[in-house]
């Protein structure tokens, strides 16, 4: 008795993209935390005073995270996510 090799697993393009988009959306808070804590690494001393550049950077990162989340939102919308999660 010889076993037949298993056929390759085919993933449809749309569910695959939805899964990767959900993965990216899950990593967005981690990216945001890293970007918001990044100025602490480049300060030469442990100063606690905020400069105008720090404030501008903070709001630019905040705006960027909002825009990324808004770009992800249409792809995450939909009720067909339940059948994608079966492994």
UniProtKB/TrEMBL annotation:
The chain crosses the membrane at residues 24-43, 55-73. Keywords: Membrane, Transmembrane, Transmembrane helix. This is DUF3311 domain-containing protein. It comes from Rhodobacter calidifons. The lineage of its organism: Bacteria, Pseudomonadati, Pseudomonadota, Alphaproteobacteria, Rhodobacterales.
